[in-house]
Design a protein that fits this description.
Largest sheet of chain A: 6 strands, mixed
Number of helices of chain A: 14
Oligomer: homodimer
Largest interface: A-B, 73 and 73 residues
Number of strands of chain A: 17
Radius of gyration of chain A: 26 Å
Amino acid sequence: VTRAAELVATGEELLNGKSLNTHARELGRALWPLGWELARETTVPDDRAAIADAVRQACARVGLVFVTGGLGPTEDDVTREALGDWLRRPLVEDAAALEAMRRRYRTAGREMTPSRRSQARIVAGAAALPNRAGAAPGQRIAWEGKTLFVLPGPPNEFRAILDDHVLPWLAAQGGGAAPRRIFMVAGLGESDVRERLEAAHTLPPGVAIAYCAAPGQLEIRLRTAAELSDAEARARLEQAWQQARAALGKHIYAAERRSLAEAVAQELRTAGKTVAVAESCTGGLLGARLTDLPGSSTWFRGGFLAYANELKENLLGVPADLLEREGAVSDPVARRMAETARARCGADYGLAITGIAGPDGGTAEKPVGLVFIALADANGAEVVRAHFPGDRATNREWSVQRALDLLRVRLAGAPAAVG
Amino acid sequence: VTRAAELVATGEELLNGKSLNTHARELGRALWPLGWELARETTVPDDRAAIADAVRQACARVGLVFVTGGLGPTEDDVTREALGDWLRRPLVEDAAALEAMRRRYRTAGREMTPSRRSQARIVAGAAALPNRAGAAPGQRIAWEGKTLFVLPGPPNEFRAILDDHVLPWLAAQGGGAAPRRIFMVAGLGESDVRERLEAAHTLPPGVAIAYCAAPGQLEIRLRTAAELSDAEARARLEQAWQQARAALGKHIYAAERRSLAEAVAQELRTAGKTVAVAESCTGGLLGARLTDLPGSSTWFRGGFLAYANELKENLLGVPADLLEREGAVSDPVARRMAETARARCGADYGLAITGIAGPDGGTAEKPVGLVFIALADANGAEVVRAHFPGDRATNREWSVQRALDLLRVRLAGAPAAVG
């Protein structure tokens, strides 16, 4: 049984072009495995009447409503007041939230002003949801058989309370959610996966599959149809998962939602190995993606941005005649870049990317989107040639993801996927 | 006079966690300079009743409604049908759109199937809006004094029709839009700018100011109050702009919406200069940001990712005893990194970042968020020390932006902002 929720996002900044509203995507993703689906999202400005109107309409349609934003200390933060007015309940100061806020401001060396203190107020009767990432607590409000969750607007605070309080509470309600499973695939496109799973009738009946494709990684969702008994649904889902594993093999890189970079980091940590990079057309994007991850210093050494051709020669020892003969975007240049990065950085693996990201620089022989990716270890280097069909940003993104997958497959001990 | 518009975004993928809805931000930004404001955004799934319901409610509140998504060739693309049903108008095939689609599919070597052809249908009486980025045309529908724009969901197609047809049409309606101006500031926080412009009563009366802060750059919007005559409003706005320029000086880096990296690229191109980088805690993010820009090979040389300390020694020639004595996160190490990157890459400028991004690695003396940024040229190096208060991602972003601004100010020929 799928149950419907709605989101009411508040904030002028979401409508005037200042901020991107990411709550709908985050919430949609988080609710899915629990058997809830987001049926509608409404964004309104910081206006009491507009907020109350949108929440009232949402409550008329569904039993679970999320309200985000407008819990800060400034005058345009009016969500608390809007909800109190609409529900005809006073706002009360939550002692625990106030105490947490006092500690927070003391640590930061900031004063507890009356406007800051006002953030500790919640709608009377609501449960305060502690906020480890910010000042204002969230709230869970029960009203006429409906549940309202009120959460802060800043994405990290929204996410913290969602993870700490909302999702556990929803999971504990249980009952009726069809079992679901998410896993991640790399090195195969959506159509390849469809063919292996759907066209080949690999999955048992009653199991539905959905795809969320991003450059170089594919999230796959399995769920069972509602008319199955709970035990039967679980058995089918487990069977489907085992069959998907058999059909997709090493292309499955995680049995939960996870980026390819996170998977590579995990493999490197487990293996106790290190990596260095040499980047041309990606200009630092591979290094940036790897060092986005906390603790990357244990397995990331560093590397070279050899964007200009002379630097491929001067920094990475690619011979001038090789560059002249083969061109900077070529198999042997990629190979040499990876080998030198590995050696000069003292890493176990060297990972190199050289290509034509576009929009300019393509020729008939070497078109925009042509990229060579090389992985070097103590035994030599392996090179993959790829031709991506996208624009500059997409080609760079694909290049990074393909490089990460090359390393992932090597670390997983399987023969590398070439193509 | 500010006029209100609403957006109804359709698409299951915007609610189930697959796609991020960027239309509200794009539209909010595009409408603002024309004197329109987005008053509400509603996202609904691909469901005729839900779409009609949301559009009906939006039309009851405002005179301009945008509907996005659901114009493709598959069965779950139902926006055309939902609007036709609700308006009680038939769908008719638009000859020009069909012809453009035929050409498009012929070029791509794809067949014109009946389902693809169905994309040429528009609501009877609507104006078809040619789509240079995709198959389905947009539509402009006049209904009971309201205007509906129906646009495709893919962001590039949405943007193309917005730019080609929607914004010109809105601009031509003219009449009553208060003149507005956007400009960009770096090196000053919002509170500093507020002090210089607002607390000092720098701006003429009748001019309102709004801020959109992002890490390291600030977008500022000026507009005049509605009760002024058009000529008077324009005069005040021009006066305000001149006064803001005087008060903020070199901190203004663009007189239009533009990123700091774009401004730096423009300055480098104009000056005919090149830059190289040496990155520690940002791990490639500075290089990636610069090479995001097409044509960066004319002014970006490359650089070093010296993440591990040995690489600061081995690749960048930072003496071991200096690293030992001062630590990797220090003024002299940043200086040496910038100088070596410049020299070894043969660039006019060397830009280096070394810091503690977090969450781990901080000490009492060198806390998380402490960053040294150095800029070297032929005359030596200048170092800026900064302490950012954010999480890992934010500290890295701030570091890159501060580095870019250091270079921007140097290129603009002014003394560098230190702080």
